Amino acid sequence: MSESAPQRHHTIDYIELTVTNLGEAKRFYADAFGWQFTDYGPEYAGIRSPHGDGAPEVGGLRLDEKVRVGGPLVLLYSDDLDRSVQAVKEAGGQVIEGPYEFPGGRRFHFTDPSGNELGVWAEQ
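RESULT FIELD:
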């Protein structure tokens, strides 16, 4: 997901905002903060900082019918997604979605013992 700096295993890498109108969200964030976007189809846009071409992707806007409960989705990066799935399960977390493929690689979502939902992604 991040395009320039190398990712580091199990660090926070990306923040995903659920939006109910992708075009309006892109307009709002561009007008308010100068954010730039990479379109990945009609339901997703990557967020780049306003600091010009080549700025890394730091997050995304994901279209859905309703805003995600609990706010933005925090995504961690993994060097080995399957090993991270196993580590989450062994630590007492619950995998609630995936692993699945997406245009940037593979990812899964999990809840921690308190119920917080996070995601983990890998390039492969």
